[in-house]
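User: Okay, second chain of the day. Same drill as before: sequence in, structure tokens out.
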Amino acid sequence: MPPSQKRVRRYDPVRTRTAVLAQFAHVRAAVAALTDRQLEGPSGLGTWTVRELAVHLTMALSHVSQNLELPEPALAKPEVTLLEWPFSTAGRAGRIAEDVAESAAAGHQDLGALYGEVADRFEAVVAGASQDRLLPTRVGVMRLGDFLVTRAVELVVHTYDLNEAAGLDIPYDRQALAACTRLLADALAEKAPGGSVEVRVPPFAVVQCVQGPKHTRGTPPNVVETDPVTWFRLATGRAEWAQALDAAKVSASGERADLAALLPLMS
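Assistant: Same drill. Structure tokens below.
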């Protein structure tokens, strides 16, 4: 998908880094309390166990640290922008699964120690780095400030997965959830540009999308509204549009307010 020509939302890099660490800390505390029986149970993500999901969650931070420790790449290829990232992830599931299996088999049975090492390394390496520092990521060259926003998305979405798999109630850091919500809302507007539908995800995001008559004043004729958790579930394929409507998790009014054909954005 070509880079957007519209104004791109800006994220404060310090707040994003703090949010990533806060969400990781929530997950770390929950994982530390899991029993061996819980860890060996199914994650709901393919063949992964809960232990493998827990290992995968550490990679949200460790990939930042590893990439920062590599030489900064020359910008020989077009960099992947933040709005392009959600659409660039579909082809890497196989490689991710291989990395998780390899890491889980490499003796990372002490998850407490692993989480501690990953958090300490991340804090030490990221603190002094410029937000414009280029990183060689799985999907292409990205800037650190943008990549940190994607880490918030990964952590929030997989926190949900871990809650579902292990019957937990890990909280969502407010700033991490906000970053996840806003990026995925902006990705929808990028995928279906226009102004005929207003999508509201209070309290974090409002975007207009879908071609057609543009709303200018008063109550929009086509409105979709949902909560942040339902929104990222829809955007990542963890919830179905029709089921969310039936469960009153989404309200949709207007003849253009059916987003089923546009979702999920990531899978």
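The first strand starts at residue 134 and ends at 137.

User: Thanks, on to the next one.
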